[in-house]
Amino acid sequence: MRQWSLEEFALRSGVSRAMISRIERAESSPTAAVLGKLSGALGVSMSTLLASAEDTGQHLRRFEAQQVWVDPATGYVRRSVSPNAGMPLQLVEVELPASVRVAFPASAYHFIHQQIWILEGELHFTEGDVKYELSKGDCLQLNGAHDCAFENPSTTERCRYLVALVMK
Q1: How is the chain split into domains, by residue range?
Q2: C-alpha radius of gyration, the chain, whole number
Q3: Fold classified for 6-167
Q4: What global pTM score does this model have?
Q5: Using CA atoms in the order 59, 63, 161, 74, what is the torsion angle rounded to 10 degrees?
Q6: What is the band of 53 on the pLDDT scale with cuts at 50, 70, 90?
Q7: Which of 45, 152, 51 is nearest to 104 (CA)?
Q8: 43 pLDDT exceeds 50?
Q9: Looking at the predicted structure, is the pLDDT value of residue 2 above 60?
């Protein structure tokens, strides 16, 4: 996506050169936290980073064709719902397993506007020092200037939410 050396990309992202190389060679699947650092360094959303290799320009993306990524460390599931037709709006469905917490650095958010809409379950969301307890139907607009953490407080039920994001 950029013409950076591996060294420069590692410095900008805070991800080791070795890890970036393993990801490039498909020898390692990155965690959500690592993807957040990489996308933040590149100034693109995680959805854009994950979909960059499959940009089809189509206006319809059927359910079966939606890209699904699973965080190998937590089981966090991210489904890119939106077609790759160059529109600024992206919709992402997330399933957060019971008792899972996923954190992202502010650099993963500073270039996008986001809203989170809870579809099922409960979500404890932390944005900097502010904590929100969200339930089904709640919708939160993110500030984007702080480190963030998504946590499912349930010990038995998943949390499912939709993220709507637009590039600034």
Answers
A1: 6-167
A2: 16
A3: Jelly Rolls (2.60.120)
A4: 0.70
A5: -120
A6: very low
A7: 45
A8: yes
A9: yes
